[in-house]
Amino acid sequence: MKKGIGYFQVGDKFDSYLLIKQADKAVASNGKAFLTLILGDDTGDIEAKLWDASPADEQRYQADQVIKVQGEVNAFRGRLQLKIQAIRLAEPNDGVHPHDFVKRAPLTKEQLLEELTSFIFEMENPNLQRITRYFLSNYQEDLLAFPAAVRNHHEFVSGLAFHVVSMLRIARELKNLYPEINKDLLYAGIILHDIGKLRELSGASNPSYTIEGKLIGHISIMSDEIAKAARELKIEAEEVMVLQHMILSHHGKGEWGSPKPPLVREAELLHIIDLIDAKMNTLQRVMDKVAPGDFSERIFSMENRSFYKPAFERE
Amino acid sequence: MKKGIGYFQVGDKFDSYLLIKQADKAVASNGKAFLTLILGDDTGDIEAKLWDASPADEQRYQADQVIKVQGEVNAFRGRLQLKIQAIRLAEPNDGVHPHDFVKRAPLTKEQLLEELTSFIFEMENPNLQRITRYFLSNYQEDLLAFPAAVRNHHEFVSGLAFHVVSMLRIARELKNLYPEINKDLLYAGIILHDIGKLRELSGASNPSYTIEGKLIGHISIMSDEIAKAARELKIEAEEVMVLQHMILSHHGKGEWGSPKPPLVREAELLHIIDLIDAKMNTLQRVMDKVAPGDFSERIFSMENRSFYKPAFERE
Amino acid sequence: MKKGIGYFQVGDKFDSYLLIKQADKAVASNGKAFLTLILGDDTGDIEAKLWDASPADEQRYQADQVIKVQGEVNAFRGRLQLKIQAIRLAEPNDGVHPHDFVKRAPLTKEQLLEELTSFIFEMENPNLQRITRYFLSNYQEDLLAFPAAVRNHHEFVSGLAFHVVSMLRIARELKNLYPEINKDLLYAGIILHDIGKLRELSGASNPSYTIEGKLIGHISIMSDEIAKAARELKIEAEEVMVLQHMILSHHGKGEWGSPKPPLVREAELLHIIDLIDAKMNTLQRVMDKVAPGDFSERIFSMENRSFYKPAFERE
Amino acid sequence: MKKGIGYFQVGDKFDSYLLIKQADKAVASNGKAFLTLILGDDTGDIEAKLWDASPADEQRYQADQVIKVQGEVNAFRGRLQLKIQAIRLAEPNDGVHPHDFVKRAPLTKEQLLEELTSFIFEMENPNLQRITRYFLSNYQEDLLAFPAAVRNHHEFVSGLAFHVVSMLRIARELKNLYPEINKDLLYAGIILHDIGKLRELSGASNPSYTIEGKLIGHISIMSDEIAKAARELKIEAEEVMVLQHMILSHHGKGEWGSPKPPLVREAELLHIIDLIDAKMNTLQRVMDKVAPGDFSERIFSMENRSFYKPAFERE
Amino acid sequence: MKKGIGYFQVGDKFDSYLLIKQADKAVASNGKAFLTLILGDDTGDIEAKLWDASPADEQRYQADQVIKVQGEVNAFRGRLQLKIQAIRLAEPNDGVHPHDFVKRAPLTKEQLLEELTSFIFEMENPNLQRITRYFLSNYQEDLLAFPAAVRNHHEFVSGLAFHVVSMLRIARELKNLYPEINKDLLYAGIILHDIGKLRELSGASNPSYTIEGKLIGHISIMSDEIAKAARELKIEAEEVMVLQHMILSHHGKGEWGSPKPPLVREAELLHIIDLIDAKMNTLQRVMDKVAPGDFSERIFSMENRSFYKPAFERE
Amino acid sequence: MKKGIGYFQVGDKFDSYLLIKQADKAVASNGKAFLTLILGDDTGDIEAKLWDASPADEQRYQADQVIKVQGEVNAFRGRLQLKIQAIRLAEPNDGVHPHDFVKRAPLTKEQLLEELTSFIFEMENPNLQRITRYFLSNYQEDLLAFPAAVRNHHEFVSGLAFHVVSMLRIARELKNLYPEINKDLLYAGIILHDIGKLRELSGASNPSYTIEGKLIGHISIMSDEIAKAARELKIEAEEVMVLQHMILSHHGKGEWGSPKPPLVREAELLHIIDLIDAKMNTLQRVMDKVAPGDFSERIFSMENRSFYKPAFERE
Questions:
Q1: Which parts of the sequence belong to the HD domain (chains A, B, C, D, E, F) (predicted)?
Q2: E120 touches chain D (CB under 8 A)
Q3: Reported pTM
Q4: ipTM value for the complex
């Protein structure tokens, strides 16, 4: 049975550990202070109110602390809330650590790095290979830590690298089915396409958009970076321009942020593979909590559709 | 070297066999009859004028005849034309047959059937498997002969079956990468999604749209057919409804002809896999005739884009 | 003077009978239970809170009970609320019945059936007549009971049949003005166009969308049903296909749910007549509560417009 | 049997009278002059070339002359052309007059005027009635002569008045079905809605757009005219403003030329009734020449759709 | 230091005069009356609650009174609120007047009138000059008092005239750069373009839309007015029509309320100059409260964008 | 009187010098060679056919030669054509030079450079000034020679620099009217905004799009260039990022090629000033050939509108 907080329903009793993700103090209409806590584990979050909070409580229950909590799940204005019945900080011999409560990719950083490296090793075009390797070396740490997005898909630790590895796996299969694909170009485009996010987002955990992210955007940032890398590597071949085109066009059209639509076969593929992996990850996250025979909540990033899980999947 | 008529350029000399695909008589301004011939092989078509055509010529040079022709390729109003210098009907001992001049899938009907059968064999859900098998039995001949479309992609003999097989291969790989996919549902959707085209189009060769195709369309035709098949097979399970939904939604949205958008994970995938294979086939057909460093003609079915073939693919 | 609850304003005193349409229990911040009641008659609904509800109250005041209530109309967050001053269940000798409090068509089921039958009797094409009669026989009970929609227009008992009869009357007049119209085709299309809603919606009262309604939709459901009916009636004429086209195209375009736009004169008419009757009914419902010289609330289903009732209509 | 030139097909022999609608001189590649004639009757037009035209021919065959012509219908670049075998001017005792060759409404001007008058007579609101009567008096002659549009619908003599009368008939029936309609407002709106076209178009026959038509448009022209009429009639009531709104909004939305969308019930109806009559007239003109079982040409003003005439209408 | 209420942040103490812009009574959950006050000066507004309001308070604190208030700025549901600690009505010897608390144009009415007059004086075309002068005379008082819009831009006393004067200044410069501009036509269009707002809006202060404003709109109102003025001035020249076109087209396209797009050079310019001044005024209002290095709130009238104030503007 | 070829109408006789802009050989239906010449001066182009061209003619009449030609202007398929009556090459003592026949900006390169330099001199922010100066130095020659676009506006020698200078003049005036504008940022944005076109287009005369222009585009090219310039100049200030944003956003929105919409006040202004100058230049080019009282041809780049030149401008 799945048992993270993300799977709890109204009426369920909870008695276990959770991480405080956010803690805000406010004053109730009776004049007493209370804390609004966002508690979570790697399956989801829930809000809880700690009423009549003393200054010591305030001091104690802060973000990034793990707590032991007993309570019951209620509904409040259509959202779940945990009614706290007992709460304390986790203690050393509880054997729990904050990082156990954070969602992360199903592969470790080491596994991700190894797989990325092996795809680069497969590449035969030296220009594309050198540029790709340059970025993997220079950005390795962040690339292995960042999420792929603020929300919607791969919004977890190592999400970006996991997204890239998943896309590379699809690319490898499509290359088998359509041999006319230029594998090196496609691999390079996939590995580099979102590296601009390392500057577009503020950090690996709980990221927001940077000023540069808002004014320039990860697409143009990365186009620049490739030009700069090529100058440093003294590569003046057409591959540089085509690779920049891959990056610039990977959102598919102007309305979606790409200054050019894909005009090279592998650029078109990069766009589609990106879509597939983002959609499959989004659906996996959402449908995991839907019972057979039910519809999901509306998914904003997928035209606000509500998806159905067939009842015959029950068996 | 590639040598079909589809690869000839202005100024090239031609001296070989071609199939007459269409022959129309008209009268020139000097009052003499002439024939406009569309000549072709499996790589493309070219127009040719046979001036001062005698009644015997008219009789002789009709559609579906193979001819031996010498001539030179000219440009006329921006399109290629073959200027005929000598022409005769092919003779028995020339050893050429009309069906050698028709484009067809890279797999034979036998290979296609075998591969389709093996995918159905993989299916575990008996309802989905029985319905799929019902259509393969009932429509086998047409399914193996029809093109997938009138133009744009897979517009050749066995194009529909080849399109289906290519999609199934992609599906199998995606199932490996995303194990939460319901393989049976996806396979069934892929195999059945375009069978309505067997009634939407007028025939396997040189097809046009039927009245039913224009008024009802292959999507609604097939939804009906599935309902009917289920009644005949006495299957009353939810699979029937979900399979109908797969068919109804496979064009993705209302503007593209689907009365419902995909609302089931596998329906979304069916739509994307259909897109990938159609695009890859279109690009393969178009880019094959483009030299490295050049742009293709505009491709209407792909938002009128003109694609670039990188010069570095030359080596 | 109009006196249903739908016409009450802030400050009005109410002292009469209402039907409980919905009753939900909740717990107030003081820890006591209260009931949120949706009370209504055939002119509208109003919310009321029954504070400090005892278990007996909970037992007593349930959906579908008629109550006698005294109170005053207040505003709460921009919506009207009935502040309950006295409440009791209706008693036998009060002489009131739940079904008096439900909005229904201005014609009885018998009148509707008679009028439908007479239109079918007018039809001369035997194929169209037999198919139409088939559905009237097989779905008579539901057809006479269902609303035409969940909200917006004809959202009352017998709404669907009343909508159909109104459309038939318009059709008869247009046939007089434009004799080239094929009356039989148009009548058949009108009578059948929304019968798929009997499966799209969950029931005659307080309907919601069924899973089949969401995944297949009333348009495709009915196209199927016509094909099936024709098979049962052993009709293989073109009328079947054209009638299916009428159904498939009656929403006018892809964005509005029709997989084909109207491509037959009577299909175009069916779409327009459907629009007229839906709009006139919507406006009638909304403008009825607007005073001359005022604007209505915004009407979502009519591009969110707010309609004006001319002051000179005051007399 | 229908026998106007509009019904002739390739290969048909023609031997009758036609009106020269346009005559243009040009010089052929052999240096000789020829005339391009547009010949027509009330069913349609056809182009014809008069080769080797002498100066006398040029003088003789001019626009608005009736000719007797023998010839055969050919196709030239996809359009029909009449190959002239013999031609002469009509003579007095042929008993034919130019105005017999011009398409006109099925009602005479007298009938149209009488019917318009009787609708105005039905009106009860004196302000609306007086304004309407004002325009009928002041613009009677043009109103009875102009077409309703340059092309697409009611593009014939008296087309505007016939369009108005047809719309009034629909309005009368809808008033019976929906008694809440304000008949006077709707009638007034219908009668006046297109009177601005008398200034937007250059004349009753062969009209083009005036400068005022292009810069101001019939909608704003007529809104002005109503304001002016009211001032002359010293009417200062709300009816004037609401009537202006009817005119301003009758194209339905901004993209279609209306500065305001319909915000009054009768304005919405005016827009829909206008649509119905325009569409029915367009379809009647187009479908009249289509054989049962065939599709029409594409109709630009109806989203470029090609309409089907059911084969079962054949009997 | 800027010190109007519009610049206060959470935590700031306030102790000064404010104007009561709106005062509404309501009853709290404890059964006691309270007042919701909107308090403001020429830099902005803030909400305040006066709890336990006595009937005397109700009487005292009404719209358009100036008060002296002490309090602290809090946040409530994301919006600022002034927590009242002390409040009293302003007294005569406080030396404050309501009109000091209202935002107004940076030029006085006299200055605005003088500048308008001088632009009209520059005009050389007598027809355009006379029509423009006619409106300035007839509408002088309102024109100098009204805002240019209900919100977004120039939403202050004399905003309309200030908007016009700013546009005229731009026009004068563009005329210098592009001498082919017809200055008279452009000046006339600018001065008249929004005069219809004097009837579209209900008054100079705190305006709402009139019925005429909603049903006819300032664009059509003004087109009428120009026609009427020309008749009164007995001007029958083309200038009238072109000036009407300028007004009708100044919103640029149908979707934005113009029944005709600009079709005259100066009409196109009028539209653009209107946009520039509206945008510059909007940005000036919004960015004034943004610190260097920060983003503004989202600006609805500018496609909901959030603008950045560069940090390097700090110095 | 204006007398360039661009002002000639059907029937006009021509007898003067023209530049051969293009010369193509073809074979007529009579088997003889002919030349299709595009002849032009600084007011426009016209096509001419040189029939029965000898090999010597072919040799003689090539692009970039000036000829003396006599002929008459005809219409052919709706376009003007010059019927050649006599033709010869210009001779040295005719005193004509090819570059007299090419359209160029109304300012000389020296004047343009001087004005650009003076605007840069006005700048006070050293970072912005140094970056701007860097580009003026490095690209001076091309910047002073290139057109601003392939067609539509400023499509002449020095068009780009003239466009920039015109925009700077507008900017200076707007700065006077709206003092809150950051002049340095706006000037820098204007001067640099289209420098990417020096790589997007193939050259100063008769330019086409380069591969880099199609795949990357002048917007992204220039964003890169600024990043590179800043690195070379060792400027690491925020100005670099904001300047890149100006370039990236200057087309206004995604659909028009900008990966980011303007999010800084001066970026919004840059976009609008660019529009104004492009539109004014387009209109000036088009309206110059339209007589008062006439409409222009449709202008594709301005939503296909046809503009009216008022008749009252005649005087």
A1: 163-279
A2: no
A3: 0.91
A4: 0.89
